[in-house]
Amino acid sequence: EKGMKELVSDLNVCSKRGLSERFDSTIGGNTVLMPFGGIKQRTPIQAMVHKIPMLEGECSTVSMMSYGFNPYILEQSPYHGAYLAIVESVAKLIATGASYDRIYLSLQEYFEKLGDNDKSWGKAFSAVLGAFRAQMELGIGAIGGKDSMSGTFEDIHVPPTLISFAVTTDELCKVVSPEFKGRGHEVVWLRPELGEDGLPKAESLIKNFKLVRTLVDNGLVAACYTPGFGGPAEAVFKMAIGNNIGFEFDEGVSMREMFGYAYGSFIIETSKNIDLTADMKLLGKTVSRESIGSKKGRVRLLALNALYEGKLEPVYSCNIKTSDESIPEMIYRTRSDEAPGSTVDKPRFLIPVFPGTNCEYDTARAVEKAGGEAEIFVVNNLTADHLKRSVKEFAAALAKANVLFIPGGFSGADEPDGSGKFITSFLRNEAISVELMKLLNERDGLVAGICNGFQALIKLGLLPYGEIGVQKENSPTLTFNNIGRHQSKLVRTKVCSTRSPWLRKASVGQILTVPISHGEGRFVANTNDIDTM
Asked: Does pTM surpass 0.90?
């Protein structure tokens, strides 16, 4: 218990979710693995995986990237540290389902100022030798990288640093996520043989890399994780917290081994019993009890997670203090059977692109997938004349459109003091606003907005009033998140009404999983407006 609590509180192991959520993880609509997996969104992934973006059609090919680096090992032995950095980065791709055959590397080195100091030169040289040996033995080449020899300030030096980035492409259907998937599953530990120098033998690594892929191909891997800084104990804990699935170690497992380095090994959850090879041993089983331990003692996942997320909570908050006050249920079950006055085979969607817009391609792809025709219109604000021309051309395009769909992003860098202001100013132009109201009132058209687009619709008054007006002091608005920062994650959203044409195929009470990425996602309105809505 003491060892696990100290481990999850270590800065090298503890949760970085509060930092990670500040960065958009869903833009582009091609994310395969979110930064944190499981229903609780807590298990950190070991490799970034995205589908190759396409303007038309679908692609089943994914790009995969991971890294490897342990400054403590590099400080003790740059040779060993560089070798293991490459092993770790490659093993992370293998654990995510990648094939060993198509992996390449990029190396980032950073050392103290070398000058005429033989020892300083020796650190850099031995690290490069270790990396070179790993590449030669594994048959994997580095096709790029960056060197820096200026890591010295007065008498302060960076530790010898060689970070390995591993990249590859593979098929979407082969991707494996690291969180435990079910209870009652066997978990095995696949380890490489070690040489006299303490490094894993290359032939053993390659054999195990290929074995993991074979298990993936045969559908035997439910989850996989390669141990890093915190050893197998860290791996098991992080695999467990994503879905709050407990784990019990087998009686024959040495707890000392669980807290040691085990680079190049794999913790594999399998829903079907597999034949253990000479390099495999049964590590334990997933259990219904939400704890980690053995028959000698256990520690609750809830307690460990509090320490795990609490370490950096004062710096990078990842939890919001919530009230126990119940929220009144807002349900409106009456459906609207209103139909548009005119019908078209393929509705034309006008998608404006403002400075800072970043999801116009995602929006257009979704529109066309649903059967619409997307027209992306780039608003040119290079000069005043360009902007005037854009206003004229946009108004003409809007006159032919069936739907105005405003995508999201960071229009005008969300300045001054909030998002959507440039979009709002543009749409308030008389020529555009007249056509916009004709779209809604005369042609039974629709309007939608995401992120900045939604903010602009509120500031215009189109939401919730249905017409362009002047925003007042008590008008509804979107304001800063309670957590006080940008957050990107998946949220569960309840459908309370289906009167909107956009929700005709949804059901009242239905729970939808929706990606968010915003700093201003809190809708605020007075009681009268809430009751009216």
From this structure: yes
